[in-house]
Amino acid sequence: MSDTGVGIAPEHQARVFERFYRVDKSRSKQTGGTGLGLSIVKHGAQVHHAEITLESHVGQGTSITLIFPAQKTE
Questions:
Q1: Model's pTM, two decimal places?
Q2: Is 74 domain-assigned?
Q3: Domain range holding 26?
Q4: Which residue intervals of the chain are DSSP H helices?
């Protein structure tokens, strides 16, 4: 998943997967949301032993990647 939004500053990137964490608290009432979305994604990734990565550049956008392990077929 990627976007071309405002991006996430490096000092916030490690925390965006925490429950209720919001980078821009001043916009909370305007944009809605609870700060739970990425924490739910991280939890789901952990349950399925997936890797989650975030790459973001301020002013350019953010990309989040999930890599699920291959399933063995018999």
A1: 0.75
A2: no
A3: 10-67
A4: 10-13, 28-31, 37-47
pLDDT at 74: 72
Dihedral sign computed on CA atoms, order 24, 30, 35, 37:
negative
- Decide if 39 is inside a domain: yes
Burial class of residue 56 (count of CB atoms within 10 Å of its CB; 0-12, 13-18, 19+): buried
Element counts in the chain: helices (H) and strands (E): 3, 2
Contact 53, 68 (CB under 8 A): no
What pLDDT does residue 65 have?
A: 96
pLDDT, mean of each 10-residue run, the chain (74 residues): 91 92 70 82 95 95 94 77
* Number of domains into which the chain is organized: 1
Q: Which residue has the tokens 């925390």?
A: 15
